[in-house]
Amino acid sequence: MILKYQRILKNRSYISLINNIESKERNRFFCRHGMEHLIAVARIAYIISLEEQSSISKDIIYAASLLHDIGRAEEYETGRSHNEAGAEKAEAILRECDYTDDEIKEITEAIRTHGHDGYPEKAAPLERLLCMADKLSRTCFNCPAHEECNRADDKKNETLFY
Questions:
Q1: Beta-carbon count within 10 A of 122 CB
Q2: How is the chain split into domains, by residue range?
Q3: Most confident segment among 26-30, 48-52, 110-114, 121-125
């Protein structure tokens, strides 16, 4: 059985967006948002979901994680929030990959809100999971750009645990 998130990885629009992000970040000193980051977020989110015995499916977790930063190139080009741009781009890709309207709504809302408020207690389960995994995927405590980084201290990951 092929999970739908595997269709995302082969989607032409997705591949083009990821290639554009990786090209724009090629010489970036700070955190990057390419495939390595997206896969790390997916794996961490899935591990947390297993530890917490979450009812969120692996497919939904991986889809949200793989798509959560696809608006980055647009943010670099226009200044528009990568969350908003990414949610719009994700909706089209998810439709092409046969996700249901309810799944699309859940995933795009998580993309739209990820990273806004740390680990928001009132957030939907997928939003909270994506937010946690995104932060935990960063090794700020061992980053050569730590001192120059403009991320707020509360958004930097200084631990391996949540």
A1: 7
A2: 4-21+31-155
A3: 48-52
What is the pLDDT of the chain when averaged over all its residues? Answer: 86
Show the tokens assigned to 41. 């977020």
Query: Which amino acid is located at 51 in the chain?
Result: E
Burial of 150 (0-12, 13-18, 19+ CB in 10 A): exposed
DSSP letters, the chain, are ---HHHHHHH-HHHHHHHHHHHHHTTT-SS---SHHHHHHHHHHHHHHHHHTT----HHHHHHHHHHTTTTHHHHHHH---HHHHHHHHHHHHHHHTT--HHHHHHHHHHHHHTTSSSS-TTS-HHHHHHHHHHHHT--GGG-TTTTT--S-GGGS--SS--
**Residue percentage of the chain with pLDDT more than 70:** 83
Note the pLDDT tens digit of each residue in 24-50: 878 876 676 778 889 999 999 999 999
- What are the tens digits of pLDDT across the range 44-79? 999 999 999 999 999 999 999 999 999 988 888 999
- Other beta carbons within 10 Å of 140: 17
In CATH terms, the superfamily for domain 4-21+31-155 is Hypothetical protein af1432 (1.10.3210.10)
For 55, phi then psi, to 5°, come to: -90, 0
